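Subject: sequence -> C-alpha coordinates, single chain

Hey, anyone have a minute? Need the predicted structure for the following. Not urgent.
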Amino acid sequence: MKRLIGRASKAAMVGLFVTGATAFANTPEAVPGEFIVKLKDSVSAKSSINVLSAELGSYIKDTIPGQNIVVIKRPVFEIQANVVKSLSENPLVDIVEPNYIYRINRTPNDPMLGQLWGLKNSGQQDSQRRAGIAGIDVGAEQAWDITTGSKDVIVAVIDTGIDYNHPDLKDNLWTNQAELNGKPGVDDDGNGIVDDIYGASFVDAAKPTGNPLDDHGHGSHCSGTIGATGNDGKGIVGVAWNVRLMGVKFLSASGSGSLDGALKGIDYATQMGAKIMSNSWGGGGYSETLKQAIERANTAGALFVAAAGNESNNNDANPTYPATYDVPNVLSVAAVDNRGQIASFSNYGRNKVHVGAPGVNIYSSVKGGGYDSWSGTSMATPHVSGIAVLLASNEPNLTNVEMKERIMATAKPIAGLRGKVKTGMVNAYTMLTNTQPAPDPNDPVNWQSVSVSVSSAHPYKEKAKEEYEVRVPGAKQIALYFSKFDTERDYDKVELFDAKGTKVATMSGKNDDSFSTPIDGEYVKIVFTSDDSVNRYGFDITKAAWK
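Reply:
Had a minute. Here:
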Protein backbone atom coordinates (compact mmCIF):
# COMPACT_ATOMS: atom_id res chain seq x y z
CA MET A 1 0.00 0.00 0.00
CA LYS A 2 1.13 3.56 -0.71
CA ARG A 3 0.46 6.39 1.67
CA LEU A 4 0.34 10.13 1.31
CA ILE A 5 3.18 12.06 2.86
CA GLY A 6 1.46 14.10 5.57
CA ARG A 7 1.39 14.48 9.31
CA ALA A 8 -1.25 15.30 11.85
CA SER A 9 -0.88 18.51 13.84
CA LYS A 10 -3.03 20.45 16.27
CA ALA A 11 -4.60 22.40 13.43
CA ALA A 12 -5.10 19.88 10.69
CA MET A 13 -3.83 16.99 8.60
CA VAL A 14 -0.27 17.58 7.58
CA GLY A 15 0.36 14.97 5.02
CA LEU A 16 29.39 33.95 -13.76
CA PHE A 17 32.67 34.30 -12.38
CA VAL A 18 34.84 37.39 -12.63
CA THR A 19 37.90 37.44 -10.43
CA GLY A 20 36.84 38.74 -7.06
CA ALA A 21 33.13 38.91 -7.96
CA THR A 22 30.16 36.61 -8.12
CA ALA A 23 26.68 36.96 -9.61
CA PHE A 24 24.04 36.69 -6.93
CA ALA A 25 20.28 36.75 -6.66
CA ASN A 26 20.04 40.49 -7.23
CA THR A 27 21.68 40.16 -10.65
CA PRO A 28 19.33 41.94 -13.09
CA GLU A 29 17.32 39.74 -15.41
CA ALA A 30 18.58 39.49 -18.99
CA VAL A 31 17.69 37.65 -22.17
CA PRO A 32 19.57 34.34 -21.85
CA GLY A 33 22.72 34.34 -23.97
CA GLU A 34 22.19 37.81 -25.47
CA PHE A 35 24.51 40.80 -25.10
CA ILE A 36 24.53 44.42 -26.28
CA VAL A 37 27.93 45.32 -27.76
CA LYS A 38 28.84 48.94 -28.59
CA LEU A 39 31.73 48.96 -31.02
CA LYS A 40 34.54 51.50 -30.92
CA ASP A 41 34.29 54.57 -33.17
CA SER A 42 36.87 53.10 -35.55
CA VAL A 43 34.54 50.18 -36.22
CA SER A 44 31.28 50.41 -38.10
CA ALA A 45 28.35 48.19 -37.25
CA LYS A 46 27.64 48.30 -40.96
CA SER A 47 30.79 46.26 -41.63
CA SER A 48 30.38 42.78 -42.99
CA ILE A 49 28.31 40.75 -40.56
CA ASN A 50 30.37 37.69 -41.28
CA VAL A 51 33.59 39.55 -40.53
CA LEU A 52 32.24 40.99 -37.30
CA SER A 53 30.84 37.63 -36.25
CA ALA A 54 34.25 36.04 -36.68
CA GLU A 55 36.06 38.90 -34.90
CA LEU A 56 33.63 38.84 -31.97
CA GLY A 57 33.34 35.06 -31.91
CA SER A 58 29.58 35.42 -31.70
CA TYR A 59 26.44 35.19 -33.78
CA ILE A 60 25.12 38.68 -34.56
CA LYS A 61 21.38 38.68 -34.07
CA ASP A 62 20.67 42.34 -34.82
CA THR A 63 22.31 45.71 -35.36
CA ILE A 64 21.59 49.29 -34.29
CA PRO A 65 23.75 51.07 -36.89
CA GLY A 66 23.07 54.61 -35.71
CA GLN A 67 24.52 53.71 -32.33
CA ASN A 68 27.36 51.49 -33.64
CA ILE A 69 25.74 48.67 -31.66
CA VAL A 70 25.27 44.99 -32.41
CA VAL A 71 23.16 42.48 -30.50
CA ILE A 72 24.99 39.18 -30.21
CA LYS A 73 23.87 35.71 -29.24
CA ARG A 74 26.02 33.29 -27.27
CA PRO A 75 25.31 29.76 -25.99
CA VAL A 76 22.98 30.06 -22.99
CA PHE A 77 25.14 27.76 -20.86
CA GLU A 78 28.01 30.26 -20.82
CA ILE A 79 28.42 32.17 -17.56
CA GLN A 80 27.32 35.75 -18.11
CA ALA A 81 30.29 37.40 -16.38
CA ASN A 82 32.78 35.30 -18.33
CA VAL A 83 31.28 36.47 -21.62
CA VAL A 84 31.34 40.10 -20.51
CA LYS A 85 34.98 39.83 -19.41
CA SER A 86 36.07 38.09 -22.63
CA LEU A 87 34.32 40.51 -24.97
CA SER A 88 35.45 43.59 -23.04
CA GLU A 89 39.05 42.55 -23.79
CA ASN A 90 38.34 42.48 -27.53
CA PRO A 91 40.02 45.53 -29.21
CA LEU A 92 36.87 46.20 -31.29
CA VAL A 93 34.61 46.54 -28.26
CA ASP A 94 33.83 49.72 -26.35
CA ILE A 95 30.94 48.54 -24.16
CA VAL A 96 29.44 45.12 -23.54
CA GLU A 97 26.53 44.38 -21.28
CA PRO A 98 23.73 41.82 -20.95
CA ASN A 99 20.55 42.37 -22.94
CA TYR A 100 18.59 43.37 -19.85
CA ILE A 101 14.85 42.82 -19.47
CA TYR A 102 12.55 45.44 -17.96
CA ARG A 103 9.10 44.66 -16.54
CA ILE A 104 6.30 46.14 -14.55
CA ASN A 105 6.17 44.99 -10.93
CA ARG A 106 3.50 42.43 -10.21
CA THR A 107 1.96 41.47 -6.87
CA PRO A 108 -1.34 39.60 -6.72
CA ASN A 109 -4.39 40.99 -4.95
CA ASP A 110 -5.34 37.69 -3.32
CA PRO A 111 -6.27 38.58 0.28
CA MET A 112 -4.59 35.59 1.94
CA LEU A 113 -1.14 36.24 0.40
CA GLY A 114 0.18 37.40 3.77
CA GLN A 115 -0.48 33.94 5.22
CA LEU A 116 1.61 32.22 2.56
CA TRP A 117 5.06 32.49 4.18
CA GLY A 118 6.45 29.98 1.69
CA LEU A 119 5.85 32.47 -1.11
CA LYS A 120 6.60 35.71 0.74
CA ASN A 121 8.26 35.49 4.15
CA SER A 122 8.55 38.90 5.79
CA GLY A 123 9.07 37.36 9.22
CA GLN A 124 5.36 37.03 9.89
CA GLN A 125 4.01 34.31 12.16
CA ASP A 126 2.84 31.03 10.68
CA SER A 127 -0.44 29.32 11.59
CA GLN A 128 1.10 28.10 14.87
CA ARG A 129 2.18 31.66 15.74
CA ARG A 130 5.87 30.96 15.20
CA ALA A 131 7.69 34.00 13.83
CA GLY A 132 9.64 33.42 10.66
CA ILE A 133 12.84 34.87 9.23
CA ALA A 134 12.42 37.28 6.34
CA GLY A 135 13.55 35.87 3.03
CA ILE A 136 13.10 32.21 3.93
CA ASP A 137 10.76 31.56 1.02
CA VAL A 138 10.84 30.45 -2.63
CA GLY A 139 11.37 33.98 -4.04
CA ALA A 140 7.98 34.01 -5.70
CA GLU A 141 7.35 37.75 -5.56
CA GLN A 142 10.47 38.60 -7.60
CA ALA A 143 9.80 35.70 -9.95
CA TRP A 144 6.28 36.95 -10.71
CA ASP A 145 7.80 40.06 -12.32
CA ILE A 146 9.22 37.67 -14.91
CA THR A 147 6.39 35.17 -15.33
CA THR A 148 3.28 34.06 -13.51
CA GLY A 149 2.97 30.77 -15.39
CA SER A 150 1.20 29.62 -18.52
CA LYS A 151 -1.84 27.61 -19.48
CA ASP A 152 0.47 25.76 -21.87
CA VAL A 153 1.98 23.88 -18.91
CA ILE A 154 0.14 20.84 -17.58
CA VAL A 155 0.83 19.56 -14.06
CA ALA A 156 -0.50 16.17 -13.05
CA VAL A 157 -1.30 16.19 -9.34
CA ILE A 158 -0.98 12.46 -8.62
CA ASP A 159 -2.74 12.29 -5.29
CA THR A 160 -6.22 12.09 -3.72
CA GLY A 161 -7.76 14.09 -6.55
CA ILE A 162 -8.69 17.75 -6.89
CA ASP A 163 -11.77 19.64 -5.74
CA TYR A 164 -12.54 20.89 -9.24
CA ASN A 165 -15.36 23.03 -7.86
CA HIS A 166 -13.06 24.98 -5.52
CA PRO A 167 -13.27 28.72 -6.38
CA ASP A 168 -9.47 29.09 -6.26
CA LEU A 169 -8.79 26.02 -8.41
CA LYS A 170 -11.56 25.70 -10.97
CA ASP A 171 -10.17 28.30 -13.40
CA ASN A 172 -6.79 26.57 -13.55
CA LEU A 173 -7.99 23.05 -14.23
CA TRP A 174 -6.81 20.98 -17.17
CA THR A 175 -9.66 19.89 -19.37
CA ASN A 176 -9.73 17.05 -21.85
CA GLN A 177 -11.33 18.83 -24.80
CA ALA A 178 -12.33 15.60 -26.57
CA GLU A 179 -14.39 14.53 -23.55
CA LEU A 180 -15.60 18.01 -22.65
CA ASN A 181 -17.03 18.47 -26.15
CA GLY A 182 -17.99 14.84 -26.68
CA LYS A 183 -20.93 12.70 -25.72
CA PRO A 184 -21.61 11.91 -22.06
CA GLY A 185 -21.00 8.26 -21.22
CA VAL A 186 -18.71 7.76 -24.24
CA ASP A 187 -14.94 7.33 -24.35
CA ASP A 188 -14.58 10.07 -26.96
CA ASP A 189 -10.76 10.10 -27.12
CA GLY A 190 -10.36 6.32 -26.92
CA ASN A 191 -7.98 6.32 -23.96
CA GLY A 192 -10.01 3.72 -22.10
CA ILE A 193 -11.65 6.10 -19.64
CA VAL A 194 -15.09 7.60 -20.04
CA ASP A 195 -15.72 11.31 -19.46
CA ASP A 196 -12.27 12.09 -18.05
CA ILE A 197 -12.77 15.83 -18.35
CA TYR A 198 -10.60 17.01 -15.43
CA GLY A 199 -8.51 13.86 -15.07
CA ALA A 200 -9.14 10.32 -13.90
CA SER A 201 -9.42 8.14 -10.83
CA PHE A 202 -7.51 4.89 -10.35
CA VAL A 203 -8.54 4.16 -6.78
CA ASP A 204 -10.14 1.02 -8.18
CA ALA A 205 -7.37 0.39 -10.68
CA ALA A 206 -9.32 -2.35 -12.43
CA LYS A 207 -12.22 0.02 -13.03
CA PRO A 208 -10.84 3.54 -13.55
CA THR A 209 -13.30 6.38 -13.84
CA GLY A 210 -13.26 9.92 -15.21
CA ASN A 211 -14.00 11.49 -11.84
CA PRO A 212 -10.90 12.63 -9.88
CA LEU A 213 -12.93 14.59 -7.28
CA ASP A 214 -10.97 14.90 -4.05
CA ASP A 215 -12.70 13.18 -1.13
CA HIS A 216 -9.78 13.64 1.29
CA GLY A 217 -8.37 17.17 0.84
CA HIS A 218 -4.69 16.36 0.41
CA GLY A 219 -4.63 16.66 -3.38
CA SER A 220 -6.53 19.93 -3.28
CA HIS A 221 -4.08 21.34 -0.73
CA CYS A 222 -1.15 20.43 -2.99
CA SER A 223 -2.99 21.84 -6.01
CA GLY A 224 -3.53 25.21 -4.33
CA THR A 225 0.16 25.62 -3.59
CA ILE A 226 1.05 24.74 -7.18
CA GLY A 227 -1.53 26.81 -8.97
CA ALA A 228 -4.38 28.50 -7.13
CA THR A 229 -5.59 31.26 -9.43
CA GLY A 230 -3.65 34.48 -8.88
CA ASN A 231 -4.79 38.10 -8.85
CA ASP A 232 -8.47 37.19 -8.73
CA GLY A 233 -9.20 39.08 -5.51
CA LYS A 234 -10.08 36.00 -3.48
CA GLY A 235 -8.46 33.36 -1.33
CA ILE A 236 -4.86 32.35 -1.88
CA VAL A 237 -2.44 32.37 -4.81
CA GLY A 238 -0.36 29.49 -6.10
CA VAL A 239 3.32 29.65 -6.96
CA ALA A 240 2.03 29.73 -10.55
CA TRP A 241 -0.98 31.98 -11.14
CA ASN A 242 -1.61 30.34 -14.49
CA VAL A 243 -1.32 26.62 -15.15
CA ARG A 244 -3.42 23.61 -16.01
CA LEU A 245 -3.90 21.21 -13.11
CA MET A 246 -4.73 17.62 -14.06
CA GLY A 247 -6.35 15.49 -11.39
CA VAL A 248 -4.84 12.01 -11.24
CA LYS A 249 -6.43 10.27 -8.31
CA PHE A 250 -5.16 6.93 -7.01
CA LEU A 251 -5.22 7.63 -3.29
CA SER A 252 -8.57 7.10 -1.61
CA ALA A 253 -10.45 9.06 1.01
CA SER A 254 -8.34 7.28 3.63
CA GLY A 255 -5.14 8.52 1.95
CA SER A 256 -3.93 5.17 0.66
CA GLY A 257 -3.66 3.55 -2.76
CA SER A 258 -2.17 0.59 -4.55
CA LEU A 259 0.80 0.06 -6.86
CA ASP A 260 -1.38 -0.77 -9.84
CA GLY A 261 -3.29 2.47 -9.30
CA ALA A 262 0.00 4.39 -9.15
CA LEU A 263 1.23 2.71 -12.34
CA LYS A 264 -1.95 3.49 -14.24
CA GLY A 265 -2.04 7.03 -12.87
CA ILE A 266 1.52 7.83 -13.95
CA ASP A 267 0.95 6.30 -17.38
CA TYR A 268 -2.28 8.28 -17.76
CA ALA A 269 -0.47 11.54 -16.90
CA THR A 270 2.25 10.63 -19.40
CA GLN A 271 -0.25 9.79 -22.13
CA MET A 272 -2.26 12.97 -21.59
CA GLY A 273 0.76 15.27 -21.87
CA ALA A 274 1.72 16.32 -18.34
CA LYS A 275 5.00 18.29 -18.34
CA ILE A 276 5.31 18.08 -14.55
CA MET A 277 4.11 15.38 -12.16
CA SER A 278 3.68 16.30 -8.50
CA ASN A 279 3.91 13.32 -6.15
CA SER A 280 3.28 13.88 -2.45
CA TRP A 281 3.10 10.19 -1.53
CA GLY A 282 5.34 7.25 -0.79
CA GLY A 283 5.71 3.86 0.84
CA GLY A 284 6.20 0.23 -0.05
CA GLY A 285 9.47 -1.31 -1.10
CA TYR A 286 11.45 -1.07 -4.29
CA SER A 287 9.22 -1.66 -7.31
CA GLU A 288 10.76 -2.23 -10.71
CA THR A 289 7.41 -1.67 -12.42
CA LEU A 290 6.95 1.67 -10.67
CA LYS A 291 10.48 2.67 -11.65
CA GLN A 292 9.69 1.72 -15.25
CA ALA A 293 6.53 3.86 -15.20
CA ILE A 294 8.64 6.82 -14.04
CA GLU A 295 11.17 6.01 -16.77
CA ARG A 296 8.37 6.14 -19.35
CA ALA A 297 7.42 9.56 -17.99
CA ASN A 298 11.06 10.59 -18.28
CA THR A 299 11.22 9.43 -21.90
CA ALA A 300 8.09 11.51 -22.58
CA GLY A 301 9.81 14.59 -21.10
CA ALA A 302 8.01 14.91 -17.76
CA LEU A 303 9.63 16.13 -14.54
CA PHE A 304 8.75 13.85 -11.61
CA VAL A 305 8.75 15.88 -8.36
CA ALA A 306 8.54 13.62 -5.29
CA ALA A 307 8.21 14.09 -1.53
CA ALA A 308 11.24 12.82 0.41
CA GLY A 309 9.03 11.39 3.17
CA ASN A 310 8.11 12.16 6.77
CA GLU A 311 9.94 9.55 8.83
CA SER A 312 13.03 11.60 9.85
CA ASN A 313 14.86 9.03 7.73
CA ASN A 314 18.23 9.23 5.96
CA ASN A 315 17.22 8.36 2.40
CA ASP A 316 20.86 7.79 1.45
CA ALA A 317 21.05 4.87 3.87
CA ASN A 318 17.44 3.70 3.71
CA PRO A 319 15.77 4.48 0.36
CA THR A 320 12.23 5.84 0.34
CA TYR A 321 10.17 5.35 -2.80
CA PRO A 322 9.34 6.83 -5.24
CA ALA A 323 11.61 9.72 -4.14
CA THR A 324 14.89 7.77 -4.36
CA TYR A 325 14.45 5.95 -7.66
CA ASP A 326 17.57 6.48 -9.76
CA VAL A 327 15.77 7.98 -12.76
CA PRO A 328 17.02 11.28 -14.25
CA ASN A 329 13.68 13.10 -13.98
CA VAL A 330 13.12 12.42 -10.26
CA LEU A 331 13.49 15.53 -8.07
CA SER A 332 13.25 14.73 -4.35
CA VAL A 333 12.08 17.39 -1.87
CA ALA A 334 12.60 17.86 1.88
CA ALA A 335 10.51 20.16 4.09
CA VAL A 336 11.75 23.41 5.66
CA ASP A 337 10.10 25.61 8.31
CA ASN A 338 9.68 29.40 8.22
CA ARG A 339 13.03 29.91 9.97
CA GLY A 340 14.99 27.85 7.44
CA GLN A 341 15.39 24.71 9.53
CA ILE A 342 14.71 21.29 8.09
CA ALA A 343 11.45 20.02 9.56
CA SER A 344 11.88 17.56 12.41
CA PHE A 345 9.77 15.01 10.54
CA SER A 346 11.40 15.44 7.13
CA ASN A 347 13.50 12.74 5.52
CA TYR A 348 16.91 13.90 4.35
CA GLY A 349 20.01 12.72 2.44
CA ARG A 350 22.88 14.76 1.05
CA ASN A 351 22.87 12.62 -2.11
CA LYS A 352 19.34 11.32 -2.59
CA VAL A 353 17.32 14.34 -1.45
CA HIS A 354 17.90 17.10 -3.96
CA VAL A 355 16.33 20.30 -2.55
CA GLY A 356 14.30 21.71 0.30
CA ALA A 357 11.10 23.79 0.18
CA PRO A 358 8.54 25.24 2.61
CA GLY A 359 6.64 22.40 4.27
CA VAL A 360 5.64 23.41 7.81
CA ASN A 361 2.30 25.10 8.55
CA ILE A 362 1.49 25.74 4.90
CA TYR A 363 -1.83 27.43 4.21
CA SER A 364 -3.66 26.26 1.09
CA SER A 365 -6.96 25.11 -0.38
CA VAL A 366 -8.80 22.01 0.78
CA LYS A 367 -11.90 20.17 -0.38
CA GLY A 368 -15.27 21.82 0.00
CA GLY A 369 -14.00 25.24 -1.09
CA GLY A 370 -12.11 25.90 2.14
CA TYR A 371 -8.54 26.57 3.30
CA ASP A 372 -6.36 25.09 6.02
CA SER A 373 -2.80 24.86 7.31
CA TRP A 374 -1.02 21.51 6.91
CA SER A 375 2.55 20.26 7.27
CA GLY A 376 4.64 17.60 5.56
CA THR A 377 7.01 16.97 2.71
CA SER A 378 3.70 16.71 0.88
CA MET A 379 3.40 20.46 1.26
CA ALA A 380 7.02 21.10 0.23
CA THR A 381 6.70 19.14 -3.01
CA PRO A 382 4.03 21.36 -4.65
CA HIS A 383 6.17 24.46 -4.02
CA VAL A 384 8.80 22.85 -6.26
CA SER A 385 6.21 21.71 -8.79
CA GLY A 386 4.94 25.30 -8.89
CA ILE A 387 8.33 26.87 -9.55
CA ALA A 388 8.87 24.24 -12.24
CA VAL A 389 5.72 25.60 -13.91
CA LEU A 390 7.27 29.07 -13.93
CA LEU A 391 10.45 27.70 -15.50
CA ALA A 392 8.60 25.69 -18.14
CA SER A 393 6.51 28.78 -18.94
CA ASN A 394 9.53 31.07 -19.28
CA GLU A 395 11.82 28.62 -21.10
CA PRO A 396 9.53 26.09 -22.79
CA ASN A 397 12.36 24.46 -24.74
CA LEU A 398 14.12 23.15 -21.64
CA THR A 399 14.00 19.40 -21.19
CA ASN A 400 12.76 17.84 -17.97
CA VAL A 401 16.32 17.00 -16.89
CA GLU A 402 17.50 20.53 -17.72
CA MET A 403 14.67 21.86 -15.55
CA LYS A 404 15.74 19.63 -12.68
CA GLU A 405 19.37 20.71 -13.06
CA ARG A 406 18.40 24.41 -13.13
CA ILE A 407 16.25 24.12 -10.02
CA MET A 408 19.07 22.40 -8.15
CA ALA A 409 21.90 24.63 -9.43
CA THR A 410 20.12 27.83 -8.36
CA ALA A 411 18.89 26.60 -4.96
CA LYS A 412 20.03 28.68 -2.00
CA PRO A 413 22.39 27.06 0.52
CA ILE A 414 20.98 27.60 4.01
CA ALA A 415 22.26 26.42 7.37
CA GLY A 416 19.20 24.30 8.14
CA LEU A 417 19.75 22.15 5.05
CA ARG A 418 23.54 21.88 5.17
CA GLY A 419 24.45 18.20 4.89
CA LYS A 420 20.77 17.31 4.71
CA VAL A 421 20.09 17.77 0.97
CA LYS A 422 22.22 17.88 -2.15
CA THR A 423 21.88 21.61 -2.83
CA GLY A 424 19.66 23.96 -0.81
CA MET A 425 16.30 25.70 -0.70
CA VAL A 426 14.61 26.28 -4.05
CA ASN A 427 14.31 29.86 -5.30
CA ALA A 428 12.10 30.77 -8.23
CA TYR A 429 13.84 34.08 -9.02
CA THR A 430 17.39 32.73 -9.16
CA MET A 431 16.05 29.78 -11.14
CA LEU A 432 14.43 32.01 -13.75
CA THR A 433 17.44 34.32 -14.00
CA ASN A 434 19.90 31.39 -13.82
CA THR A 435 21.99 33.16 -11.19
CA GLN A 436 23.67 32.16 -7.95
CA PRO A 437 21.69 33.02 -4.82
CA ALA A 438 23.13 35.55 -2.39
CA PRO A 439 24.90 34.07 0.66
CA ASP A 440 22.54 33.46 3.56
CA PRO A 441 23.39 36.03 6.28
CA ASN A 442 21.79 33.68 8.80
CA ASP A 443 24.06 30.77 7.85
CA PRO A 444 26.86 30.39 10.44
CA VAL A 445 29.17 29.01 7.73
CA ASN A 446 29.45 32.64 6.54
CA TRP A 447 30.34 33.97 10.02
CA GLN A 448 33.66 34.26 11.86
CA SER A 449 34.59 31.27 14.02
CA VAL A 450 36.78 30.27 16.96
CA SER A 451 37.99 26.81 17.93
CA VAL A 452 36.06 25.04 20.68
CA SER A 453 36.52 21.59 22.16
CA VAL A 454 33.45 20.08 23.82
CA SER A 455 32.70 16.36 23.63
CA SER A 456 30.61 13.72 25.31
CA ALA A 457 32.05 10.33 26.16
CA HIS A 458 32.29 7.96 23.18
CA PRO A 459 30.04 6.10 23.56
CA TYR A 460 28.15 8.05 26.17
CA LYS A 461 26.94 6.44 29.38
CA GLU A 462 23.42 5.49 30.47
CA LYS A 463 21.41 8.12 32.34
CA ALA A 464 24.01 10.76 31.56
CA LYS A 465 23.40 14.36 32.48
CA GLU A 466 26.26 16.58 31.45
CA GLU A 467 26.53 20.37 31.24
CA TYR A 468 29.01 22.49 29.32
CA GLU A 469 29.40 26.21 28.65
CA VAL A 470 30.72 28.12 25.67
CA ARG A 471 31.34 31.87 25.66
CA VAL A 472 32.54 34.11 22.81
CA PRO A 473 33.05 37.59 24.29
CA GLY A 474 31.48 40.34 22.23
CA ALA A 475 29.40 38.03 20.05
CA LYS A 476 25.85 39.03 19.20
CA GLN A 477 24.99 35.47 18.13
CA ILE A 478 26.69 32.09 18.46
CA ALA A 479 26.20 28.82 16.58
CA LEU A 480 27.96 25.63 17.64
CA TYR A 481 29.49 23.34 15.02
CA PHE A 482 29.02 19.62 15.60
CA SER A 483 31.64 17.73 13.60
CA LYS A 484 29.98 14.53 14.79
CA PHE A 485 26.58 14.00 16.38
CA ASP A 486 24.93 10.61 16.88
CA THR A 487 22.43 9.97 19.67
CA GLU A 488 19.36 7.77 20.09
CA ARG A 489 16.68 9.83 18.44
CA ASP A 490 14.13 11.47 20.76
CA TYR A 491 15.55 9.77 23.87
CA ASP A 492 19.12 11.05 24.12
CA LYS A 493 19.38 14.75 23.39
CA VAL A 494 21.39 17.95 23.50
CA GLU A 495 19.57 21.06 24.69
CA LEU A 496 20.95 24.57 24.21
CA PHE A 497 20.14 27.47 26.56
CA ASP A 498 20.95 31.17 26.25
CA ALA A 499 22.25 33.44 29.03
CA LYS A 500 18.68 34.05 30.28
CA GLY A 501 18.13 30.32 30.72
CA THR A 502 15.75 30.10 27.80
CA LYS A 503 15.92 26.82 25.91
CA VAL A 504 16.73 27.70 22.30
CA ALA A 505 17.10 24.30 20.65
CA THR A 506 16.89 20.55 21.15
CA MET A 507 19.04 18.25 19.01
CA SER A 508 18.75 14.50 18.68
CA GLY A 509 19.49 11.70 16.20
CA LYS A 510 22.16 12.11 13.53
CA ASN A 511 23.49 15.63 12.91
CA ASP A 512 27.09 15.22 11.73
CA ASP A 513 28.75 18.23 10.06
CA SER A 514 26.07 20.68 11.17
CA PHE A 515 25.61 23.95 13.01
CA SER A 516 23.16 24.47 15.82
CA THR A 517 20.40 27.03 15.67
CA PRO A 518 21.96 30.47 16.33
CA ILE A 519 21.77 31.56 19.98
CA ASP A 520 21.48 35.27 20.77
CA GLY A 521 24.29 36.70 22.89
CA GLU A 522 27.84 35.61 23.67
CA TYR A 523 26.96 32.62 25.89
CA VAL A 524 25.40 29.19 25.48
CA LYS A 525 24.88 26.36 27.94
CA ILE A 526 24.85 22.80 26.58
CA VAL A 527 22.91 20.13 28.49
CA PHE A 528 23.24 16.50 27.36
CA THR A 529 20.95 13.82 28.76
CA SER A 530 20.50 10.13 27.93
CA ASP A 531 18.16 7.34 29.02
CA ASP A 532 19.09 3.84 30.18
CA SER A 533 18.93 1.96 26.88
CA VAL A 534 20.77 2.59 23.61
CA ASN A 535 24.15 4.32 23.88
CA ARG A 536 25.58 5.78 20.67
CA TYR A 537 28.68 7.83 19.83
CA GLY A 538 27.54 11.13 21.31
CA PHE A 539 28.86 14.42 19.97
CA ASP A 540 31.93 16.55 19.28
CA ILE A 541 31.77 20.38 19.10
CA THR A 542 34.91 21.71 17.40
CA LYS A 543 34.14 25.39 16.78
CA ALA A 544 31.74 28.23 17.46
CA ALA A 545 30.67 30.55 14.67
CA TRP A 546 29.78 34.07 15.74
CA LYS A 547 28.79 37.51 14.54
